[in-house]
Specification:
- The structure is a single chain.
- This protein is of the alpha+beta class and 81 residues long.
- A 5-stranded mixed beta sheet has the order 1-5-4-3-2.
- A hairpin with a 6-residue loop joins strand 2 and strand 3.
Length: 81
């Protein structure tokens, strides 16, 4: 799969702690290889078009859209519990 980071995503990612950035990179690689990788727990997000949610860890999530053969990374941040 191809991928693209929207500007909003890049701005959010750079502000996160380095440890969370490192965890995201690991999850990002899992996603590129297998959308159904167990640690991602990827699922469609609400009823909002083709937006998906996946885990960085227990506290952080990232959101992306799938269009054709490309993942568009939309946002990343703390998961509201």
């Amino acid at each position: 799969m191809n991928h693209s980071f929207l500007d909003q995503f890049k701005n959010q990612l750079i502000l996160l702690p380095k440890e969370i950035q490192k965890k995201f990179n690991k999850q990002f690689n899992f996603l590129l290889n297998d959308l159904r990788h167990p640690s991602l727990r990827a699922k469609k997000y609400g009823g909002v078009g083709n937006v998906w949610q996946a885990r960085v860890d227990n506290d952080y999530r990232f959101y992306f859209e799938i269009r054709g053969d490309t993942y568009f990374f939309v946002s990343i941040g703390k998961h509201p519990k």
